[in-house]
Amino acid sequence: QLIPLVAVAGILFSRYTFLGFFPLLIPPAWLLADLLPRLRFQLPRLAYAPAAALAIAAILAWPTFVSAWSAVNWRAPTLTVSDDTQFLTKFPSGTSTEQAIDWLDHAAKRQPITIIVGHWVGLPNDMLYLTFDHNPNIQLLHWLDNQYPLHPLAGRPNTYNLSDDRWLDTHIRPITLDPTRPTYLLCPALRDDDTNQMRQYLPFDKLPPGTHLVTLFENTPIAKTHSVAAELRLLQIPVTPPPPPAAIAQR
């Protein structure tokens, strides 16, 4: 039973081999089913319950400890090559997303901000919504990047076709960005194996003119090459500042 699991451990993601571990639960269950009835007839009634509890606890002790250890510290388990790739080094692993979430959280404590979230599934988009959905200092807007570029509507400064609900794409409508808030967009960049250069997932021609890089958050470097395979780029979307009070009064 263990041989095929060990053989594919470094090839497949561990979640795909998860079902293969269920048959391993049969031998200890079989052992308990055979052992406990024997103990019931050999031990006094008052001693049987503690003995049965001790036998069950002994069998469950190691898997319970390992599961709790992994839940408390995600760095604790020994990762296979495929898991290391998915969770630490390449997109969409979470190390760069954790850094970006921390940066945006601190920025929102200084002043209200707007974050435009792309349409692709997974990190960082879903994490942004799960973390900041109820933050009063953060406005989250959803952009269908797979359907149209993020360009302002003609004659309407700071206005884009967006949605304020990531889960309901039918609510796309013209939304005007608050010019008093900085507006950010998190964009992944992946290292091209042919050129060894970082390639931005969203090219700048799909973004408003004047969009610029604020900072970047790197994933954990690959152990063998010490190179960064993926990063998150924090881009700032330009907004037209509001007219001064004197100009408003003249109108």
For the termini, the CA-CA separation is 80 Å
Categorize the overall geometry: elongated
The mean pLDDT is: 84
Query: So how many helices?
Result: 7
Largest sheet: 6 strands, mixed
- Mind telling me the C-alpha Rg? 27 Å
Assess the beta-strand content as a share of residues. 15-25%
Succession of helices and strands: HHHHHEHEEEEEEEH
Low-confidence stretches: none
Number of strands: 8
Tell me which oligomeric state these chains represent.
Answer: single chain
**Fraction of residues in helix:** 25-40%
Structural class: alpha/beta
Descriptive overview:
With 251 residues, the protein is α/β, with parallel strands linked by helices. 36% of the residues lie in helices and 18% in strands. It is built from seven helices and eight strands; from the N terminus they run αααααβαβββββββα. The chain has helices at 2-8, 26-42, 45-72, 81-89, 95-110, 125-132, 245-250, and strands spanning 113-117, 138-142, 159-162, 173-176, 183-191, 198-200, 212-218, 230-237. The strands form two sheets. Strands 1, 2, 5, 6, 7 and 8 form a six-stranded mixed sheet that branches. Strands 3-4 form a two-stranded antiparallel ribbon. Helix 2 runs antiparallel to helix 3 (45-72). The longest helix has 28 residues, at 45-72. The protein is elongated. The model has no long low-confidence stretch (mean pLDDT 84).
